[in-house]
Amino acid sequence: MNLLLKGGRVVDPQVELDQVADVLIKDGLIAEVGVDLDTAGCEVLDCTGRVVVPGLVDLHVHLREPGREDLETIRTGARAAARGGFSAVCAMPNTVSPIDSGAKVRFIVERAAADAIVRVHPIGACTTGQKGESLAEIGDMLAEGAVAFSDDGRGVQSAGMTRRVMDYAKAFETTIISHCEDESLAASGVVNEGAVSTSMGLAGQPAIAEEVIVARDIMLAELTGCRLHLAHLSSAGSAELVRQAKARGIRVSAEVTPHHLFLDENAFAGRYDTYLKMNPPLRTANDREALVAALLDGTIDCVATDHAPHGLHEKEREFELAPFGITGLETAVPLVVTNLVATEKMSWSQFARALAIAPRAALGLVEVKMASGSDADITIIDPEAEVKVEADRFESKSVNSPFVGLTLKGRATEVIVGGRFALRSGEVVSL
User: Which residues 6+ apart lie within 8 Å of 270 measured at CB?
Assistant: First the structure.
């Protein structure tokens, strides 16, 4: 049975498309995009009033398997991704046993093939054990399916080791994802350094702890020619460094999370809410506004969630002891639609670029286009739907989100992966 997506607003800036049209899917591929296509022999899905875009990709998630399956597994993380509108995710390597060998990458690939409702792309560690001391098996991991390399979670502290990693990555034409944090400057900071950290009596983490590594890694990328992607930027200074690097033609891309776009340190307002404890921390309102501006003008390429599941027993501790991070896969789309698209700050073309096209480009993944011959990886969004963020509706095993309780606008209704439904009528499809 062929599938015809009928009458949706089909948006894809890669092929200069933004019009009401039909999309015909055959054998896992897009067969045709046009107006009033023949419905004979097709299952027809009425997409009237909805937006049809290339399948969304989250290039920064933590699936916790292997090692902390009590928090998330590849299966539950993939279901959360589908529920949120993503047809693919990239899994960071900082599991309890870091993904730093070809065998461990193969484990992720095989487990995802058996359990995941969406595509799961493994990211390998840059250094053995993510200790920053010796080079990991980059070539072997690439051969087994790794799509990029990162020591995300703490980052490579040595400039010399970072240069060596980039030299290897350049030889393989793969991407290094940098977790930008100078630990000697970040010290034990748990919130942004400034008036709020002082008023809360908590150790502050200054923006310069991020910016000095952003600057360093941009310089090393320029030296080595390596393709560099900067993870979860949080400050105006970092965005400006990326802007200058792109102007010089350096191969750099960058991401920002929904929480850094739509929350700042004022959210604490005297409360010690560990659901607002992030790394990097929520910074000032000026930083947040600069990040939004940088995303809208294309300086920052992608929105990525940094989906970080934690147990309630871990988050509900003293602020200094609670882990950093929040879940994000199931709230990203409505947050972006509510705050940027519905307010007409962001067009649907910009939305597709930031959540579907640029993430693939940053890591060199196979392009997906709303055009004949492309893989049928598609996300369909109802922009008018109201979404109440409810913890007991999460597909993720963990519910550590500061957005629970909000009513937002816009949700994914369908996710199609290689021509098959992963999400249908807002419900995740069983494998």
Answer: 199, 200
Alpha-carbon span 87 to 58, nearest angstrom = 9
Tokens read off for 194: 């400034």
Q: How far apart are CA 291 and CA 282, in angstroms?
A: 12
Spell out a b/e string for 68-79, using b for 16 or more CB atoms within 10 Å of the CB, else e. Answer: bbebbbbbbbbb
Q: Give the tens place of pLDDT for each residue, 121-142.
A: 999 999 999 999 999 999 999 9
Q: What is the DSSP letter of 281?
A: P
Stretch 176-188: mean pLDDT: 97
d(CA 262, CA 264): 7
| Class of residue 126 by CB neighbours under 10 A (exposed 0-12, middle 13-18, buried 19+) | buried
**Is 382 among the residues known to form the active site?**
no
Q: How far apart are CA 134 and CA 305, in angstroms?
A: 29
Given the residues 306, 375, 377, 382, select the one marked as catalytic. 306
pLDDT band at 167 (very low <50, low <70, confident <90, very high): very high
269 pLDDT band (50/70/90 cuts)?
A: confident
